[in-house]
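Researcher: Next entry in the queue.
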Amino acid sequence: MKDGTIEFFLGGVSPDGFRTRFGDILADNEYFTYIIKGGPGTGKSSLMKKLAAAFPEEEKEIYRCSSDTDSLDAVVFKRFKVIFMDGTAPHTFDPVYPGATAQILNMGEYWDAGKLFSKRSEIIAATEENAQYHGRCRRFVSAIASLNSDSFTIAARTLNLEKLEGFANRFTKKLFPKKDTDSKGTLSYKQLSALTKDGYKTLIPDGYTVYVLRDPYCAGSDFLLRSLSDKLIERGYDITVSEYFMLQTNAFEHMLVPELRLAFITASSFNGLGDIEGLRINFSRFYGKSAIAAKKQRLNFNKKAAAELSEEASEALTKAKEIHDKLESYYIDSVSFDEINRLSYKLISVLKGKA
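Model: Structure for this entry, 355 residues:
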């Protein structure tokens, strides 16, 4: 991992709106979580970037914002057992055990409320316009998920599951020796892919050996990843799964085996990854060729329509980002960043005390 860091998205847009599994991480009461509250442009992301940069060699997880990939939504310090996260919409979180396992950092303490009040009409209008574009994006994603799910279902019905399971068994024996322990591994969910204003993006981890699952329909790769995950957990390996949000049902899109630095990345017509570097596994052999050929026209229509809708969804996110930038300008003009810098130094000192 580059500088001891691995990157994920906190979550992403889905047919049901913004979706995240980050609550699973917050539920681990061994961690202490700082939940940062405040408006756009109040320094939440900048604060987390400073904290991450202050400890370049520490093992940590960086969680990017899918609406603005240059912004951070969370930083998890693994050894310190400390989390910093943006707790505002669309990923609103509050302490379950205030003071014991979490506390709120209120960035509102550092703004000039009078300046914001004087801009209330502009702030309200921009906030509502931003929400409209996000709503437009969700409607496009719902349509994309319907088309993708149709293709997924068609392809899944043609799979030679016996052949695919046999491959999974051989692959497991080759790569994953049984560990000398009776303990089972664990399964966690963290998002490697998300729809952004620049299209559907995947964060491929540095320092991992990558297996590229070349599967245009995701059905075979979903089956393989589920089968491998069950086998690896039985053999004592912890695994991380990234789900595909652009379907109407849950599907495994990618999988990491951190202990072995292995990544299984699906490259499909759904996510447009194309020719990425890695050891390739071609899934065409697991599908019924004649059955797929019989549905080729419908599958091609779904692919083309979903691609066009994906461009519209990304354009909606681009417009939302432009409005968000306008909102940020109102808050930036009202915030005392000297105070936020002092807060960052204080928090760095707290973390150094845990080193």
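Model: Residues 137-304 form one domain.
Researcher: Noted, moving on.
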